[in-house]
Structures are given as C-alpha cells and as structure tokens.
TrEMBL record, chain A:
<dbReference type="GO" id="GO:0004674">
    <property type="term" value="F:protein serine/threonine kinase activity"/>
</dbReference>
<keyword id="KW-0808">Transferase</keyword>
<feature type="domain" description="Histidine kinase/HSP90-like ATPase">
    <location>
        <begin position="8"/>
        <end position="170"/>
    </location>
</feature>
<protein>
    <submittedName>
        <fullName>ATP-binding protein</fullName>
    </submittedName>
</protein>
<dbReference type="InterPro" id="IPR003594">
    <property type="entry name" value="HATPase_dom"/>
</dbReference>
<keyword id="KW-0723">Serine/threonine-protein kinase</keyword>
<keyword id="KW-0547">Nucleotide-binding</keyword>
<dbReference type="Pfam" id="PF13581">
    <property type="entry name" value="HATPase_c_2"/>
</dbReference>
<dbReference type="InterPro" id="IPR050267">
    <property type="entry name" value="Anti-sigma-factor_SerPK"/>
</dbReference>
Automatic annotation (TrEMBL), chain B:
<dbReference type="Pfam" id="PF01740">
    <property type="entry name" value="STAS"/>
</dbReference>
<feature type="domain" description="STAS">
    <location>
        <begin position="3"/>
        <end position="112"/>
    </location>
</feature>
<keyword id="KW-0597">Phosphoprotein</keyword>
<comment type="similarity">
    <text>Belongs to the anti-sigma-factor antagonist family.</text>
</comment>
<comment type="function">
    <text>Positive regulator of sigma-B activity. Non-phosphorylated RsbV binds to RsbW, preventing its association with sigma-B. When phosphorylated, releases RsbW, which is then free to complex with and inactivate sigma-B.</text>
</comment>
<protein>
    <recommendedName>
        <fullName>Anti-sigma factor antagonist</fullName>
    </recommendedName>
</protein>
<dbReference type="InterPro" id="IPR003658">
    <property type="entry name" value="Anti-sigma_ant"/>
</dbReference>
<dbReference type="GO" id="GO:0043856">
    <property type="term" value="F:anti-sigma factor antagonist activity"/>
</dbReference>
<dbReference type="InterPro" id="IPR036513">
    <property type="entry name" value="STAS_dom_sf"/>
</dbReference>
Amino acid sequence: MAIVQLTISALPAHVRTARLMATAVARRAGIAESALDEVRLAVGEACSRAVEAHRVHCPDQPIQLELIDGAGNRPLTGTQPDPPVPATPPNGHQAQRFEVTVSDRAPAEEAGGPPVNSHAPGSEDTHPEDSLPGDVNGLSPDVGLAVIVGLADDVSIEPHDGGTVVRMSWPLGNTGTAVDPPLSTS
Amino acid sequence: MDLKLDHYTEDDTEIVVVEGEIDVYTAPRLRELLIDLVNKGNVHLVVNMEKVEFLDSTGLGVLVGGLKRVRAHDGTLDLVCTQERILKIFRITGLTKVFGIYESVQEAIDKRKSK
C-alpha cells in the first residue's frame, strides 16, 4: 500500500493543488480514466468545504489529505505463505481501492451539518431556488457533500467535535463507475 | 489553468465567456462580473461554458446567485455547455431543471426570444 500525505493551509488557492495531486496519484494508482474526473471533483469539493469551514472557525489550522493506493498492499514475503486477507483489513483501508481522506479541524456541528449517509440521494437534498444568497457560496455547504456522495464509489462522512473526516474511495483497475458512461476527455 | 473571463453584447443579450477552472479560488471573480453586468442593466445573460475545464459546487453557487439576481429584474441567465464532465455536476445537483442549458449561444438567444 502506498500513501501520499498532503497538508494545506486553509486557503482557496491550495484547493487546486490538492485536486491536481489527487488526480496525479489516482492516475498512477491505476484508477480508470473515466473515474479520474470524479476523483478530481470529489476531492475538490471535500477540500473546498474544509477550507470554508476553517476560514470561519480556525483559519490558522491546516487541512490534511491522505491519498491511499490500496493496490499492492501485500508485501513480498519470500517463501512464507500469504496470510488470509480479511475483507476489510484491520487498518480500515479497503484493499484494491484508491482511497482519499480529507480531515478538517472545524467543529462539525456548524461546519458540516448533520452526517450524510452514503446512500443519500444528493439531488434531492438541494433546493437551489429556496436558498439563493448573493454570497460566493450561493449553495449550502451540504451541496458539496451531496456532490461527493454522487461522485465517489464509496463515501463516509464522520463529523465529530474535533472536525470532520470525509473518506471516499474508488475501485482500482478498469471497472470505473458502473452507472455512468465514460466522460469526455476534451 | 486559471480563470479567463470575457463578455460581449449580442442581440440584446450579454454573453459571458468563461474559460478555465471555476472553483472556490476563482469563483469570486465570476460572481463580481455577473453582479457588475446586472448592476449595469444587463438582465439577459448567457454564460458560455464551452471552455470551462473544471466546475465545482462553489461555481454552481455563483451561477445560481446570478440567476437569482437577473430574475429579480425579470431577466434570464442561460448556459451554453455540451461537455459531459461539466453537465454531470448539474445533473447530480438537480440544477438541469433550474437553468436553461443549450448547445450554442445562438440557440440560447433564440429560445429566450421565443418565450
């Protein structure tokens, strides 16, 4: 298993840096080309949300990303037989998946709202015409979470007192996303 | 790529040409342009997104904010976009039902005038 860690200041400009790095690591990990755009957008949404929350609550605190290439997580063991591989390894990381975690330190109650179930229908949670402030963020931060739920193959959003951890993953290989057609590459 | 913005008038409609990435960093510039155009009396806007390479929910929020502003003046804000990667986020959020999304600037203008 290969891990890339990235720590960014809570500045909007660094969200793009995080997107670019996540896309590069995902490509190297072997994510299907059709899913790279999903990784890029979902990571961008998670980081944007975290940056906005930090700017309100703790602008001096950094935001942490972990990019985990779940492939090749069984090290060479010479002549020793491989131990049984559990469905979910003890460290919680899922094998043969590309996983991204974005951890912020803003109080979850105000920053991220209620927990979002990974099966929540994102499009039904948005009421854009009912919430149209003239601010830059014309949509609720929950819309960003809904977009993540709509994009990532598997999502968990864990709010707690010390911040929120958004964990999302995609299968490695050529399986891509089953329900969506390939995205254009223009 | 950073964000490039341009605009011109065509057939009583202000065409906003957006190129590059619309995210939490660049979206404020688009927001300022839309507000400025509306404040100057341009209430029929078409945002040409054919050269947009990335759009997130912050960018969507700016477009929704612009739509609210023009509607307050009985105006319109339509989009030109044929890129599947960009259309996808409109579909996920249900905003395809909120915006008029067309394949060309001329089609957007013609549709508005026919209403």
